[in-house]
UniProtKB/TrEMBL annotation:
<feature type="domain" description="HTH cro/C1-type">
    <location>
        <begin position="13"/>
        <end position="67"/>
    </location>
</feature>
<dbReference type="GO" id="GO:0005829">
    <property type="term" value="C:cytosol"/>
</dbReference>
<dbReference type="GO" id="GO:0003677">
    <property type="term" value="F:DNA binding"/>
</dbReference>
<dbReference type="InterPro" id="IPR010982">
    <property type="entry name" value="Lambda_DNA-bd_dom_sf"/>
</dbReference>
<protein>
    <submittedName>
        <fullName>Helix-turn-helix</fullName>
    </submittedName>
</protein>
<dbReference type="InterPro" id="IPR001387">
    <property type="entry name" value="Cro/C1-type_HTH"/>
</dbReference>
<dbReference type="GO" id="GO:0003700">
    <property type="term" value="F:DNA-binding transcription factor activity"/>
</dbReference>
<dbReference type="Pfam" id="PF01381">
    <property type="entry name" value="HTH_3"/>
</dbReference>
<dbReference type="InterPro" id="IPR050807">
    <property type="entry name" value="TransReg_Diox_bact_type"/>
</dbReference>
<keyword id="KW-0238">DNA-binding</keyword>
Length: 74
């Protein structure tokens, strides 16, 4: 995953989380992830696996394809 794509994916996750009115702690718990790892995802520091993306999407009650679509380049 390119660095730009990582950053866009992180931003997409952050925006979806904030639309839910959730803290990072709440999303991390719902997705069964470490809160610091979620922070790294949102900052675009790490490249999450598809499995992690699916966990995040399920916790946010979204399809993984929606998270990926929203972070694609225009």
């Amino acid at each position: 995953m390119s660095e730009q794509l990582q950053q866009r994916f992180g931003l997409t996750v952050r925006q979806a989380r904030k639309r839910q009115g959730w803290s990072q702690e709440r999303l991390a718990e719902a997705a069964d992830l470490n809160r610091s790892y979620l922070g790294e995802i949102e900052r675009g520091v790490v490249c999450p696996s598809l499995s992690t993306g699916a966990k995040l999407a399920a916790a946010l009650e979204l399809k993984l394809s929606h998270l990926l679509r929203d972070c694609e380049e225009a």
